[in-house]
Design brief:
It comes from Acinetobacter pecorum. InterPro entries: Acylphosphatase-like_dom_sf, BLUF_domain. This is BLUF domain-containing protein. The chain has 143 residues and is an alpha+beta fold. Strands 1, 2, 3, 4, 5 and 6 form a six-stranded mixed β-sheet that branches. A hairpin with a 2-residue loop joins strand 2 and strand 3. The chain is globular, with a radius of gyration of 14 Å.
Length: 143
């Protein structure tokens, strides 16, 4: 199993953003469920950050066939692809975590004024994934 993370900028005008986010999530959840891919999507300040976990060939296909051709994304930045033993988000075909003060505080603690994954190094990505796992856990407790 592999883990693949990327950042991209939204091309959606503000008037279409909510509808585009809903469509992205529906498409991702459908594809991911069918292909045993799990992951998380975070969106804030006009930027997407997504972590996907699954088989290497499936993730590469997802990148080439879907993400690179999706007009709702631009300036895609790929982070390190890692082999992992266990998924970080095993219960979610695609978990969406909206802009949160905890993530904003996390970014400030990491030295960023706002959510700018394009400035992240791999160590920031790893720390963000841990924070998103915490967010996921807190949501499950309150559900």
């Amino acid at each position: 199993m592999y883990q693949f993370c990327y950042a991209s900028k939204s091309t959606s005008p503000k008037t279409d953003l909510l509808e585009d986010l809903a469509n992205i999530l529906k498409e991702a959840r459908d594809f991911n469920y069918q292909h045993q891919v799990t992951g998380v999507l975070y969106f804030a300040d006009g930027c997407f950050f997504q972590c996907l976990e699954g088989e290497c060939l499936t993730l590469k296909s997802l990148l080439v066939e879907r993400l690179n051709k999706d007009p709702r994304h631009q300036d895609i930045k790929l982070f390190e692809t890692k082999e992992i033993e266990y998924p970080s988000f095993p219960d979610w075909s695609m978990k969406y975590i909206s802009k949160r003060s905890q993530i904003q505080q996390f970014c400030q603690d990491m030295g960023f004024n706002d959510f700018n994954p394009f400035a992240f190094q791999q160590s920031h990505v790893d720390a963000l994934l841990l924070q998103l796992c915490v967010e996921q856990g807190e949501e499950q407790k309150s559900a």
